[in-house]
DNA sequence: GTTGGCACTCCCTGCCGAAGAGTGCCAGGA
DNA sequence: TCCTGGCACTCTTCGGCAGGGAGTGCCAAC
């Protein structure tokens, strides 16, 4: 078990390294932190921390750098989440309040997050699978062509063109529209299929084909569009850690272009609190030198989507976690208000 | 006036430099290109080209590199647009054919373009200002709350929530919906305002407030959303020219995050053909060492939006122009089919 | 107008030595 | 048992310097 002071030394190393971006030595450490012991003592502690795998030396006779394991300990036991200042909170609120629609909310969120954390921000669109149906609309585009519009409680809108097997009259259309809405309004997506299964039966035989087509398109939309969309921003922040540049940044940019990878990254976030994945804890190869800080957000108690940031393992964890948590909270409020 | 052979030398320099990414000398040039003259002669030609400002030396006793002016001459007079191979064309067609809706079309296009050109791709969503109204839908969400849905001929859907000054009955709603559609269906956006100006007058006094609110929201949407959205992709391709890395790539990434800058870039593209902006021809500071190849695309004869790629001035212009043109053409077809 | 020859310039690489930062270990003291 | 000062050692970094290579510019000859 590590003594209290050794933990303190680790904390100091992490803080200094995050600040200076350079390996930190024993002398500098005693000068900048009020450790009450001499550099020699710190050296002993550092040797112990190194034996345990919490820190490492880039080369003999260089200072120490935290390992992934060291950051993990730091995040779990040595650091809290730094709350944002009142000014920052006001800025978030003001910025998000200006949004006009869902796209705008997500767009603003990603910019805000990138700016606050000075890192790459990733925001997932509110997932359809956990949202509820607010309204289904059917429009006639041509005698045998309809447009299906699906509106969710999070403000998301999906539309599909439906080619009907036979012409479908306006009155039947209004009828179908009304019945559909009365059945599935307010329902969650997974609950929809059984509720509409018998709808074709209540129509005239010659209309059943069209009704079935409409329904299967609707169900397809519900399933397909559970495929989750993402927005990312702030990639230019990657250039801030410019040292081992091309080698580090390339795979990260590539990983960020793959939705699948990102979704899995965010997917690991739990509903309840801020999740941090450090370095090699990220399975994807290109991201082993980055950390991901993510959290769920939603209009109510339950998370409907996730958001987070991706940055170097050498990041300001307390500040980043604070910013991510705060942004998620405000976005949730905004969604709830609409 | 430059002699035929000097133009040939310039073309050879551009081609070699694009291929090798290194300054090209007289000897290598005579070896790799069938110039029929000796290195010494080429040196004379190079000196002349340098006097005219078409090429430059990074330093004394290095090879020559094309200047922006050199690339310009190359693009304008020395190179054509390289058509894509049949296999490439098939690949484009297949890839785009799989798209399910407008978002998907744009998403696929940006990925395709990035992959084909191995550069950063930018695709503008079909602009609302040149599209026509296909349908307007009004839904009642609550007694005094409506949702306005606007569907365009390019398949784009915009929605807005409207808070009404007074409750609005279902029959009035249907009435308003019908009148709106009969007036503006198929109209271009700029033509809409005069067509609906007198609509409130034909309603009962207590309903006029709501009708006006709906109309102003509609007009706002038409104007606001002429604010054009963009999708970009393939930023990891920026890492391919890894030499003067952090300095070059940083401002480019920053520029790419600013919609305004990108819109202006694409906006310079003419409707008719592929436009190329080389190096300093781009006004934005961060993009002076990049070239932009862009073109308009649309479902008919007229361009409804632009797309293009951003890459180093040292790029394969004929191939890039060919790819951009081909992709634009196929996207236009896809849009026309829907 | 073209060509071969030749001197010159400049970059790149590797090598060397000095300086600096940081460590590990040891012996002495509380 | 733990802390401390001292000291030798290691390793990186940086400037200076020489050698090799690539490419040019110019000149005289064809």
Automatic annotation (TrEMBL), chains A, B:
Q: Is Cell inner membrane given among the entry's keywords?
A: no
Q: Specify the Heat-inducible transcription repressor HrcA C-terminal domain's residue ranges.
A: 103-321
Which superkingdom heads the taxonomic lineage of this protein's source?
Bacteria
| GO MF annotation terms | DNA binding
Could you tell me the keywords of this UniProt record? Repressor, Stress response, Transcription, Transcription regulation
**InterPro entries, A to Z:** GAF-like_dom_sf, HrcA, HrcA_C, WH-like_DNA-bd_sf, WH_DNA-bd_sf, WHTH_transcript_rep_HrcA_IDD
**Gene3D superfamilies from the entry?**
3.30.450.40, Heat-inducible transcription repressor hrca homolog, domain 3, Winged helix-like DNA-binding domain superfamily/Winged helix DNA-binding domain
Q: Which SUPFAM superfamilies match?
A: GAF domain-like (SSF55781), Winged helix' DNA-binding domain (SSF46785)
List, in alphabetical order, the GO biological process terms annotated in this UniProt record: negative regulation of DNA-templated transcription
Provide the function of this protein. Answer: Negative regulator of class I heat shock genes (grpE-dnaK-dnaJ and groELS operons). Prevents heat-shock induction of these operons.
**Homology family:** Belongs to the HrcA family.
Specify the protein name: Heat-inducible transcription repressor HrcA
Q: What is the scientific name of the source organism?
A: Streptomyces hoynatensis
């Amino acid at each position: 078990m590590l003594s209290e002071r050794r933990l303190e030394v680790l904390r100091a190393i992490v803080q200094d390294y995050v600040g200076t971006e350079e390996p930190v030595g024993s002398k500098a450490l005693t000068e900048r932190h009020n450790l009450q012991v001499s550099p020699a003592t710190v050296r002993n502690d550092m040797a112990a921390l190194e034996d345990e795998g919490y820190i490492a030396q880039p080369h003999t006779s260089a200072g120490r750098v935290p390992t992934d394991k060291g950051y993990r300990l730091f995040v779990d036991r040595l650091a809290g989440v730094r709350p944002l200042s009142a000014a920052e909170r006001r800025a978030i609120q003001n910025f998000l309040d200006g949004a006009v629609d869902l796209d705008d909310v997500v767009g603003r969120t990603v910019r805000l997050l990138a700016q606050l954390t000075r890192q790459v921000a990733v925001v997932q669109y509110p997932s359809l699978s956990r949202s509820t149906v607010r309204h289904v609309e059917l429009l006639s585009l041509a005698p045998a062509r309809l447009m299906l519009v699906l509106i969710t409680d999070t403000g998301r809108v999906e539309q599909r063109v439906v080619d009907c097997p036979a012409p479908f009259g306006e009155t039947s259309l209004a009828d179908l529209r009304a019945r559909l809405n009365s059945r599935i309004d307010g329902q969650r997506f997974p609950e929809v299929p059984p509720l509409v299964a018998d709808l074709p039966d209540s129509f005239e035989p010659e209309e059943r084909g069209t009704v079935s087509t409409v329904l299967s398109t609707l169900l397809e939309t519900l399933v397909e569009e559970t495929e989750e969309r993402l927005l990312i921003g702030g990639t230019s922040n990657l250039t801030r850690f410019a040292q081992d540049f091309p080698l580090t940044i390339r795979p990260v940019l590539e990983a960020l272009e793959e939705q699948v990878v990102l979704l899995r990254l965010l997917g690991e976030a739990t509903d309840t609190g801020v999740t941090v994945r450090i370095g090699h804890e990220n399975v994807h190869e290109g991201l082993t030198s980055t950390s991901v800080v993510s959290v769920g957000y939603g209009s109510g108690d339950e998370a409907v989507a996730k958001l987070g940031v991706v940055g170097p393992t050498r990041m300001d964890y307390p500040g980043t976690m604070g910013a991510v948590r705060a942004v998620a909270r405000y976005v949730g409020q905004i969604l709830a208000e609409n």
